[in-house]
Amino acid sequence: MERRNRIGDMLVSLPLAHQIVIGIAAVVLAMAAFIFFQWVSTPSYTVLYSNLDDATLSTVVDELDRQGISYEIEAGGSRVLVEKSQVYQVRATLAVAGVESGAAPEGYSLLDEQGLNVSDFRQRVDYQRALEGEMELTLLAMNNISQATVHLVIPEESLFSEDEVAVTASVLLDTAHPLGELEIETVTFLVASGVEGLEPKNVTVADVAGNVLHASGDMADDSAVSNRNLRMTHDFEATLATDVQNLLAAVAGPESASVVVRAQLDFDEQSVETQSFDNENAVTLRDSISTETYVGAGTPPGGTLGVEGESVATDTDGSYTYDRSDVISEYGVDSVISKEITAPGKVELLSVAVVMDDGSLTGVPVPDVAEVEALISAAVGLDTVRGDSISVSTVAYPVPEVVEEAAEPEAAAMDMMAMIPQVIGGLVLLIVVGSLLMMARGSSKKTKAAALEVVQPALGGGGAAAVGETNDGASIHPEVMNLVQRQPEEIAVLLRTWLADRR
Length: 503
Prior knowledge:
26% strand
C-alpha cells in the first residue's frame, strides 16, 4: 500500500507533459497487449468438408452444433471450416455419428438407378450428368486440384453431317496453387479425350478466381500448339546448353563459362509413300492359250491377212482353211511400298554462343578457342552446311558479390506477421524509456534546486553559519549530510561552481 502511495505521489509530482507521455505509453501498451492477445487467441481454420449440397450441409452443421464445435461456412454454403487442430478428430466424430461429407461427385453410378419406364430425355440427361461426374472424379485425382466442376453441352445428333453442332465443355477448378501450362494442357486433353466428339479447342478452363486458363475456339487450339512448340524448343535449347556447360566445366573449371544455345526447329509433319517395281525378275503367274480352226467353202472370214498366228489357205475348188491361235501370259513383278513419316522437331538451324573466363577469376589457363569450338561443335552436332554457327569469346569475369537470397513471399509475410508484436513492444519500450529519462531529468533539477536552497545559506553566511548554523540559529547540518549522501556528484558540481564564482 505504501509503495502504491509512493508511485501515486511520484506521478502527481511529475510535470503535466511527463504525465501525458506516461498516459500515452500506457494506452499504447494496453492496445499492443490486446492485439497480441487477439492474434494469439484467434484459432486457425481449415477445410473440413467441401462441395456440400444443402441437405448434407444442414446435417453437418446440426451435428457440429450438437457437439459444441466452432465452425465457419464459406463458398456460398458449400464449404465448412473448423479449427486446424481439430479437423481430423471432428471428421472421425462425424463419421461415427453417421454424417457423410457428400464431397465425391457421382459418375456412372447414376445410371444404376434407372428403371424400365425412363424417358429418352431422362436417359440423355442422366448420361450427361454421369459423364460430368466421371470427369470431375478424374480431375480430383490430380494432386493440385481440390475442387472441380465440369459442364458439358452435348447437342442432339443431326440427320446431316453439315448441320451437326460441336460438343463443348467448361471446367471450373479450385487449385492449391496456380497451374502451369503443362498442367492446364493436361486438364484440357483429359476432358476432351473422355467425351465422345469433344475436341480440345472446344474446352474452356477457368479457376475460382475468374482467370481463364484455356479459352475455347480456333485461336485456343493454335495457341496450345504454339505453346507446346515453344516449350519443346526451350527444353531442347536448355538440354544442349547444360551439356556444353558441363563439358566446359570439366575443361576450364566450374562456373568458368556462360553458354547460350538458340535452335530453330521444324514442327511440320510430313508423310511420303513410294511404290517401286522390279521388271528384271518377272515371274509367270498365268498363261492363256486360245486356238481357232475353220475349214470350208464360201466367203473367207474378213480381217487383215498375214497376222501372226492367223493363216488363210484357199484351195482350187473354192474351199479354204482358217487357223488362229492366241497366247496371253500374265507376269508378276516385285513391288515395294515404302512410307516415310518425318516427325516434327527437326533441327533447321542451330547457333551457340559461349563466353569464357580468361583465367582472372578461376586462375585456370584457358584452352585454345579453336579447340573449344571443335569440342562444342562435336557435342551439339553443328552442321556448317546447314548454316549453323558458333562463337567463343574470352573475357575477364568480375568478382561475384555475395548476395543473400531473398526470402520467399510467403515466408517473408509470415516473418513480418511474427515481428509485429516485437515491433510494438519495442516502440512501447522506447516510449517508456524516454519517459523515465525525462522524469529523471526533472527529478535531478528538483534535487539541485533543493540542494541550492539548503547549501547556499551555509556557504553564503560567515562564522557560525559556515560551521552549520543559519542566521535564525536553526541547524542545517543533517540536511546537508543527507543531500551529500544521496546526490554526491550534484553537490560536488554545485560546490565547484560556487567556489569558482567566489574567486
